[in-house]
Model the fold of this input.
Amino acid sequence: MSVDSNPVITRMNLLLSQWETMQDRKLIFLTCYQMMTRNVLLAIENGEFEDGDWVRRLMENFADYYFRALESFEGRQPTTPEVWNIAFTAVQNPRINSLKNLVLGVNAHINYDLVLALADLLVDEWPTLTEDQRGLRYRDHCRINHVIHDTINAVQDGVIRRFDPEFSVLDKLMGPLDEWVTTLLISDWREEVWNHAAALLDSAQPEPRGSVLARVETTSLDRARVILEI
Done:
């Protein structure tokens, strides 16, 4: 199966085509997400991960969280995670620039969805994994940071400048600094995500597990509110 025929990419491209016609600004985050996902799939094909099949399953489960949140929001269902309510509602406000729209989506998908997606995929094997095997999973999780880093410029050129051309001036003034800061921020978030997922997996009893989930939700919501206020 080619990268472009992958069901996740196909579904993303269909949504992007629809939103392009409708001038729906939800395409700001999804364009970025599609680029990242496509590059992860290419990295899998190129053998850049220690367990490419596991990374593919993670990528598919991760995407399902986004699609479910989107369907819930568009169907006005109470099941929509609040952090996604904030992100999806923000795109309807013309006063909120594209960079904030993008980072709100990234925050919801990484700081909330990714914790759950990782825990889903690891829950059955976690108790039997050795430290070395857990380290392998962690290293593949971290390798995705390199894909994100390599995609930042394309996102800036293809998404941010399109909706907010004034950011081109900022980029010329700052050089690669903005890409460096963005990549560092996401790397820090993803490190925290791994720790939250591990805490969930280590919490066999409902009460501590509920505390971890509450912390994950609070962290993502606090960051969404900070992004809106900047």
About this structure: Residues 3-229 form one domain. Residues 71 and 93 are 20 Å apart (CA to CA). The mean pLDDT is 89. The chain has nine helices and no strands.
